[in-house]
Amino acid sequence: AQSVTQLGSHVSVSEGALVLLRCNYSSSVPPYLFWYVQYPNQGLQLLLKYTTGATLVKGINGFEAEFKKSETSFHLTKPSAHMSDAAEYFCAVSDQGTDKLIFGTGTRLQVFP
Amino acid sequence: EAGVAQSPRYKIIEKRQSVAFWCNPISGHATLYWYQQILGQGPKLLIQFQNNGVVDDSQLPKDRFSAERLKGVDSTLKIQPAKLEDSAVYLCASSFRQAGSTEAFFGQGTRLTVV
User: Fold this and answer.
1) How many CA atoms lie less than 13 Å away from B4 in the CB half-sphere?
2) What is the pLDDT of residue A24?
3) In angstroms, how far is the first alpha carbon of chain B from the final one?
4) Which one, of A58, A111, B62, lies nearest residue A66 by Cα?
5) Is some CB atom of chain B closer than 8 A to the CB atom of A34?
6) Chain B: nearest CA to A43, how far in angstroms?
7) Is the pLDDT of residue B97 over 80?
8) Over chain B, what is the mean pLDDT?
9) Nearest-CA residue of chain B relative to A9?
10) Bigger pLDDT: B47 or A52?
11) Which of B9, B31, B12 is closest to B21 using CA atoms?
12) Test mutation, A3, A89, A100, A108, chain B, max B CBs within 10 A
């Protein structure tokens, strides 16, 4: 079964610092990969997705992620953190055949002034 | 474009009572998901519909949970009887399969507290 592992349940950075949230997937075939963000008391919002093609994917709010097949990773980065980036971030994997969407356990990002 | 609508936003019930949640997906989206998100955890897929048929319900506790999607549009998720451990946010999502990708859109969720 497909799964994703998010390393680090909490990440803290200073405003303006690099954000790096880690995600590794387990799949025997190239999956679709997603990053979602969840603000308090809100549903999940798509940040970016990888399906096929370019391995560096750019998303909303200045976030990007790189698909590395050799490392089975899809880490999320942002060059300069903003206070408004504080939220819960979820990595997810989708089976191309069934569209079943499986989430990781999430990483809570804190941004300090 | 209207998003995924869920109601109610909040619900408090006593254990052993029953509760139902409603979801209206984005128009034209054939796939509908129900997720359970316990505090501090990632969303767990309970059931996935394709139109009005069930694609996956392997994680649905069928002794107490049920879901239906009549006419392939709206969906309801029911819990009867509720247990304390059912306290969670129940998220509904829908997707429209496009060539090469499937993106799920989420509602704001229903926060259930069982006391």
Assistant:
1) 32
2) 95
3) 37
4) A58
5) yes
6) 4
7) no
8) 92
9) B40
10) B47
11) B9
12) A100
CB–CB contact A101 B45 (8 Å): yes
Give the whole-angstrom CA distance, residue B46 versus residue B30: 17
pLDDT, tens digit (0-9, with 9 covering 90-100), for B38-78:
988 899 999 999 888 998 999 999 999 999 998 889 999 99
Contact B4 A43 (CB under 8 A): yes
Q: Which residues of B touch A90 (CB under 8 A)?
A: 42-43
The alpha-carbon gap from B45 to the nearest alpha carbon of chain A, in Å, equals 7
Would residue A99 be called left, alpha or beta, if left means φ above 0 and alpha means ψ between -120 and 50 degrees? left
Q: Which among A34, A51, A100 has CB closest to B56?
A: A100
Query: Average pLDDT, whole number, for chain A?
Result: 91
Of A43, A94, A105, the CB nearest to B109: A43
Give buried/exposed letters for B31-54 (b at 16+ CB in 10 A, else e).
bbbbbbbeeeebbebbbbbbeeee
> In this predicted structure, what is the pLDDT of residue B101?
62
Reading the block at residue A10, the tokens are 């909490």
pLDDT score of A96: 67
The full 3-state SS of B17-38, as one line of letters, equals CCEEEEEECCCCCCEEEEEEEC
| Chain B nearest C-alpha distance from A6 (Å) | 10
Task: Answer yes or no: are the C-beta atoms of A67 and A58 closer than 8 Å.
Answer: no
